[in-house]
Amino acid sequence: MRKELLRLVLRETLNRNGIPLAWIGADALAATSRGREPGIHVRLMVRHLDSRVMVHAAALQHDFETRLLAMDPLAAGWLMGVSWQFDLPDSQASPTLPHPDSWAAAPVQPAAQAEPARAPSSAQARAELEQLMAMRDAALQQDAETHGASFAPTQPSPL
To answer: Where does residue 154 fall: left (phi above 0), alpha (psi -120 to 50 degrees), or beta otherwise?
Structure first.
C-alpha cells in the first residue's frame, strides 16, 4: 500500500510541476536502521536527462516529501530516505564536463547565508547577475545542442 502511495505522490508531484511522467520514476526499497522500525527508502530515477531537472532536484525532492507527508502524516516514521539514480537509455548522450577552472569560480551564496549588513554595489550585483545568466545560457545551449530544441509549436489534439 505504501508503494502505491509513493507512486501516486510522485505522479501528482510531477504533474503539478509540469514535468513529464516518463522523465522520473521511483523504486521503493525496504530499509532498516538501528533504533527504528523497518521502513521504505525511495530511489528517484532520472530517465530523461534535462538540465532543468538537475538544477531543481532538491526543490523537487522537497515538494515530493511535503506532498507525501500531507497524504500520510505517518510517513515521517516509515520514510527512511530519498536518493537519486540515473537510469538513462543508452541512446541518450550526457553532456561533457565543463573546464576544470569553472568549478573554482566563486559560488553564489544563497540569500539566507548572505551577509545582510553589506549590500553589493549595483555594479557588482550586475556583474554577478551577468555571470549567472551567461552560465545559464551556456547550460541551456549545451542542452539544446545535445537534445534538440526544448519547445515545439503547439499541435491540436487528434479527435
So the answer is: beta
Q: How many CA atoms lie within 13 A of 65 on its CB side?
A: 18
Residues paired with 109 in a beta bridge: none
pLDDT digits (tens, 9 = 90+) for 86-101: 988 876 677 788 888 8
Within the chain, which residues score under 70 in pLDDT?
Answer: 91-92, 106-120, 147-153
Q: At what angle do helices 57-71 and 2-16 cross, to 10 degrees?
A: 130
Rounded-to-integer distance, Cα 57 and Cα 61, Å: 6
CATH topology of domain 2-86: GMP Synthetase; Chain A, domain 3 (3.30.300)
Backbone angles phi, psi at 145, to 5 degrees: -70, -35
